[in-house]
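Hi team,

As requested, here is the filled-out complex form for the NAP run. I kept the field names the same as last time so the parser does not choke. Let me know if anything looks off before we queue the next batch.

— J.
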Amino acid sequence: MSFSHVAIIGLGLLGGSIGLAVEEHLPDVKTTGYDADPKVRERARQRGLAGTIADDPAEAVRGADLVILCVPVGAMEEAAKAIAPGLDRQAVISDVGSSKESVAKSLAKALPGHTIIPAHPVAGTEQSGPDAGFASLFQQRWCIVTPPKGAQEDSVAALARFWQQLGSTVEVMTPEHHDMVLAVTSHIPHLIAYTIVGTASDLEKVTRGEVIKYSAGGFRDFTRIAASDAVMWRDVFLNNREAVLDMLDSFLDDLEAMRRAIRKGNGEAMLELFSKTRAIRRSIVEQGQDDARPDFGRHDHG
Ligand code: NAP
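And here is what came back:
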């Protein structure tokens, strides 16, 4: 089983990148797209993010054998309801949402009787909107597929193959485990970045001008993450609450331990932690998940 017509709902960073990647890697596969925002649809037509851009969600999915919802997590249910009238009974419905347990529930509720196989490509940038997408976004990145219990194996395999053809390596796990892993690798880091950048901009003893001027000391690397789409991240924290709170407790315990070490002048405790974390950075670079260059090799995509 392989897909011949992919419909993409939501034509921002993720949806646009899927459309461009399909055009590059699977040129025989037909693509159709839809976005709730007419201005985004217009820009998507200009950029050719999908072969055809429909003005109606049900029209966009008509005849598609794979439908991928690329809207913020909080909009998944509404988007799924809107495509329902046009869906083929045999179509596989998937998504790219950053949290999986709540999305699986929303999609199952909105589309009873349909084959739903949620997924999350662990690939992104801090940019959003129809100008943000690029064909190589998924190259050498992981895509986590989270099928529900009892999902048809051939559909799961076809979805996995689709992501591999776009350049990703696929891993299958439960939605609950996905949400725990992503809480620590993505959601908490975003929360820390948003918080530290907020703290720095509200300080009274150090001016905002100084914060910007001397940002190369480390702060600027947090600002990249803290520039991410506000709606997307609000939805992630509203939808992955339990796992985020769990990981946040662990983080706060460790932060408190570091606070104690600084207060007591315990350099040993600091050296132990800072050496361990350097090794993690080395492993990430060795496994091709980042670039060792100081700009992370990201100059091509802003
Ligand atoms: P994005 O660039 O903001 O694109 C989302 C698009 O969906 C916007 O154009 C939005 O329009 C549109 N939309 C919202 N509600 C809709 C609806 N009901 N029907 C049709 N279109 C609708 O966001 P993104 O970064 O591509 O994120 C999309 C999804 O991918 C999210 O679920 C996110 O969690 C996930 N994800 C993101 C990243 C990342 O790094 N950004 C990585 C992996 C996965 P409006 O702007 O007008 O609302």
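Two things worth flagging: Residues 237 and 244 are 7 Å apart (CA to CA). The mean pLDDT is 95.

Thanks,
J.
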